[in-house]
Amino acid sequence: MKYCSSCGQQVSRQVPDGDTHERWVCSACGMIHYQNPLVVVGCVPERDGRILLCKRAIEPRYGYWTVPAGFMELGESTAQGAARETLEEACAEVEIGHMFAAVDVIDAGQVHLFYTAKLIGDFAAGTESLDVRLFSENEIPWDDIAFHSGRYALQKYFEDRGENKGVHIHELRRARS
What we know:
The chain has helices at residues 78-90, 148-160, and strands spanning 11-14, 23-26, 32-33, 38-47, 50-56, 65-66, 69-71, 93-105, 110-120, 129-135, 168-172.
C-alpha cells in the first residue's frame, strides 16, 4: 500500500496510538488502514450420498476439482454466500445445512467456512467451471483437489457422514524449510 484510500496522500507503516500492531497510516489525514483476513465461504452439496464438485476454469488451480466456494460479498451471510457461490459455479440451488468446518489459511490471510448442503434440482458448469459432477466418496479425484482447505472439508464431511458433530477447526500454514 502506498497511498491513502481516503485522501490520496502517502501512507507509512507505524503502530497507531493505543494499538499493538503496525498498520498503514496516512501521513496527511491520519486514517488508519486495517488489513483483515478475507472470508471464503463454501459448501459440500450432497444428493443421494454423492457430492457435487466443480472443475475450475480459472486460476489459481485451473483444471483442478473443488467444492463450490468463493469470497463472501458485503451484505450477505456466510450461508447465503455459500449458496450464491454454488449457483455461480455449478448453476445449482442448494438448501444450506450447518457449518461443519472452519479453516484458518494463515499465509493467504483468509478464513474458509464450509457448510453441509442438500443439492436441489439440476446443475451445470457455470462460468468459473469447466465441468461439474457428482462423486461418491471413493470416486473423488483426491489427488486433483484444488485446495487443502477443500480437501480438509471433504474429509471431515465424510468422517461426520453429514451429521452435525460440531465445527471442525483447522489451521493451514506453508511448510517452512
